[in-house]
Specification:
The chain is α+β, with helices and mostly antiparallel strands. It has two domains: 136 residues, no CATH class; 245 residues, Cytidine Deaminase, domain 2 (3-Layer(aba) Sandwich), CATH 3.40.140. 45% of the residues lie in helices and 14% in strands. The protein is built from 16 helices and 14 strands. The strands form four sheets. A six-stranded mixed β-sheet has the order 6-3-9-10-11-12, sandwiched between helices. Strands 1-2-5-4 form a four-stranded mixed β-sheet. Helix 2 packs parallel to helix 7 and helix 3 runs parallel beside helix 7. It is flat, with a radius of gyration of 33 Å. The termini are far apart.
Length: 469
């Protein structure tokens, strides 16, 4: 009897220990990581397909905003049917999001989940992050489709009848005029041809001036290539393959950039994301397909911008500032200035290019020469204030962090810029002329780019938000 009791007691202890072992809960981070891989296995939701789809929709939106005949473009590309199909596909995956999460979490049912509700919220955030930009772009496309121009009064007029009536009126007037002259016996005499050439050629003629849609400016970097006030950065120094061959960064631009992040240096425990746009010029080497660009003037966000620890919201006023500064620079210099770069910080998070950064890059790029747009990412809390330069490759994809072979230092750039201002200019070590392309019809990048829309992504536990109207 005692032996039986002892055996029951021993079996009870072993069962309790086994339950403790099997009941060990799985950490949320492990589940979230596995779910990201699962999402990548779904053809519609994987990152490559989402990027391609977003770029395609953005291109349609941009064309609708700038096309002279919107109706013809809509009909040619069957955009209404295209919009319905894309919204239907997106709606399907959004409606099935909860079921997808439930099915995925079944594999952890026996082990248990560390904090199931928090885990579900994180998995839903992953799906929303993947589909959020697509939904925003589809809404923009729908708005452009529905915002069809109403036919004006002139468009509604039947011009055939107008012409017929006008011809009849002219004939009646001529008949009445001829009849009156015959009655008076007056033979009509031709009037002498008017001439703008008066005595001595002093009589001024009528001058007709037509306002053109685009003012052609000179596209050149002649004054920059050998200018010691510009820091020369060759792309081959920081990545193996880039559509940008060289950057010329003006010393005053570097100083303004350094001062913009001075508050982070003064208060590193409360560093906030910050950013700006940079105006400059560009030339294209048609033989090599490479670009040479300059970074000359910063454009700061307006008072509607929001900067927090893990949020960067440019606001809507910065677009107006960019347009105003571009008009001023083009008028004063007769040079073709454009938005050549944008800058933002990752304080304490290291230098990388997130999915949200890529979305902003794709929306800001030039409509006909997209590959010259460059992005600078600054980690203000590293000892040297690391700067990563991200450019397009020739295939249209952006260089990733893993492809960068060199990080620059904002502190070292600032020291160089200060030295330039205090010491006499010296000849640069390398003097290579950037190719110059003839002035062609170019559009203002800020005028052509669609409005930046809000997106979120999670990297290293931080959520970023970019928006601009």
């Amino acid at each position: 009897m005692k032996k039986r009791l002892f055996l029951f007691f021993l079996v009870g202890i072993l069962s309790t220990n086994l339950h403790v072992i099997t009941a060990k809960e799985v950490e949320n981070a492990v589940i979230i990581s596995a779910f990201r891989q699962h999402v990548e296995s779904i053809p519609y939701l994987n990152e490559a397909n989402m990027q391609t789809l977003n770029a395609e929709i953005s291109e349609h939106v941009k064309c609708l905003q700038n096309w002279s005949d919107k109706e013809a473009y809509i009909k040619e590309h069957d955009l209404q049917n295209y919009l319905d199909q894309q919204k239907g596909s997106l709606k399907y995956y959004q409606n099935s999001a909860y079921a997808m999460i439930d099915d995925f979490l079944l594999q952890y049912a026996e082990q248990g989940i560390e904090n199931e509700q928090a885990c579900r919220d994180s998995l839903m955030a992953v799906l929303n992050d993947r589909t959020g930009m697509c939904e925003t772009n589809l809404n923009l496309l729908e708005r452009e489709l529905n915002n069809k121009e109403e036919p004006s009064f002139l468009d509604q007029i039947n011009w055939t009848w107008v012409i017929i009536v006008a011809v009849l009126l002219i004939c009646i007037i001529l008949l009445i005029s001829l009849a009156g002259k015959k009655q008076k016996g007056v033979v009509p005499q031709p009037k002498p041809a008017s001439s703008n050439r008066g005595t001595g050629g002093n009589t001024a003629g009528i001058v007709v001036r037509r306002k053109t849609a685009t003012i052609l400016k000179k596209q050149s970097l002649e004054d920059v290539v050998d200018n010691p006030a510009y820091l020369k950065v060759d792309a081959i120094d920081f990545c193996e393959e880039s559509a940008v061959r060289r950057l010329y960064i003006k010393n005053t631009c570097i100083i303004d950039l350094y001062n913009m992040y001075a508050s982070d240096l003064a208060n590193p425990n409360n560093a906030k994301e910050n950013g700006c746009m940079v105006l400059g010029r560009w030339v294209h080497d048609t033989e090599s397909g490479e670009y040479y660009i300059s970074l000359e003037q910063l454009v700061m966000p307006g008072d509607d911008a929001v900067f927090k620890e893990y949020e960067l919201n440019f606001g809507g006023k910065i677009k107006l500032s960019v347009l105003e500064q571009l008009r001023r620079l083009r008028r004063e210099t007769n040079m073709q200035y454009d938005l050549t770069c944008w800058v933002h910080s990752h304080p304490g998070l290291s230098v990388f290019f997130s999915n949200s950064d890529l979305s902003v890059q794709m929306q800001l790029k030039h409509p006909t020469h997209p590959n010259f747009l460059t992005a600078l990412v600054v980690d203000t809390l590293t000892p040297k204030e690391d700067v990563g330069i991200f450019t397009f490759r020739r295939d249209g994809n952006i260089n990733s962090k893993n492809e960068l072979t060199k990080m620059y230092s904002l502190k070292e750039w600032y020291a160089w810029a200060q030295k330039c201002l205090t010491e006499p200019p010296t000849e640069p070590k390398v003097s290579v002329s950037a190719p110059e392309e003839p002035a062609t019809k170019t559009e203002t990048l800020a005028e052509q780019a669609p409005a930046m829309t809000s997106t979120t992504t999670t990297s290293s536990g931080a959520t970023y938000q970019y928006s601009s109207n």
